[in-house]
Amino acid sequence: MFAARILIAGGLLATAFAVSAKPAAAPAGPAPKDLVQARQAGMVMAASTLNLLKGASANGTPLKNLAFPAGGLAKWAASSPALFAESTRQVPSRALPAIWTNKADFAAKAKAFADAARALADAARAEDKAAFDAALASTAASCKGCHDSYQAPPPKAG
Ligand code: HEC
To answer: pTM for this one?
Structure first.
């Protein structure tokens, strides 16, 4: 009985030791290819959202009804630079290597987008048509401003 208890206690100790001796697993982050897929999907949705906002505004939709998609675009603008992690450089994509050699300029282009999209969401909430139209133009310009330097042209259809 006593011997059995010692055995059990020893077994528990050994287990506890095995558990604590295991090196702490590194926190699993997303794989680089998943970051690339996420940013490409987000970009497509950003384009869809921008088109929706342009069309709805031209059709006279109350701007307050556009605050939700405009706010989503602003959230995307603020968070998307993180998806251009250095680890994604080796994954085939249309992201140009200059992103990681001109980091400050890429960040400035991303900030221009974030500022424009934030102004768009603010204007929608305020039902301010002039500010909304101006922010639509500056948001579209910020997309092009970044793509001109940092996005490779689409592969030619063969
Ligand atoms: C700070 C830079 C930057 C800004 C701002 C930016 N983009 Fe992009 N975008 C990129 C880069 C770089 C790629 C290529 C990414 C890749 O292939 O992984 C891209 C890719 C895309 C794609 C192609 C996605 C696919 O199918 O692979 C679309 C569409 C797109 N962007 C739309 C937009 C729109 C619309 C805006 C503005 C509302 C915008 N982008 C703002 C840098 C930017």
So the answer is: 0.86
Q: Which residue, 11, 154, 132, 3, is CA-closest to 69? A: 132
Query: pLDDT > 90: what percent of the chain?
Result: 78
What lies within 8 Å, CB to CB, of 69 at 6+ separation is 49, 52, 53
CA distance 70 to 53: 7
Report domain 31-150's class. mainly alpha
The domain segmentation of the chain, as residue ranges, is 31-150
Pocket test for ligand 1, best of 35, 43, 149 (most atoms within 8 A of CB): 43
Burial class (CB in 10 A: 0-12, 13-18, 19+), 132: buried
Say what the pLDDT of residue 6 is: 62
Confidence of residue 25 (pLDDT cuts 50, 70, 90): confident
- Does the beta carbon of 93 lie inside 6 Å of ligand 1? yes
pLDDT at 64 over 80: yes
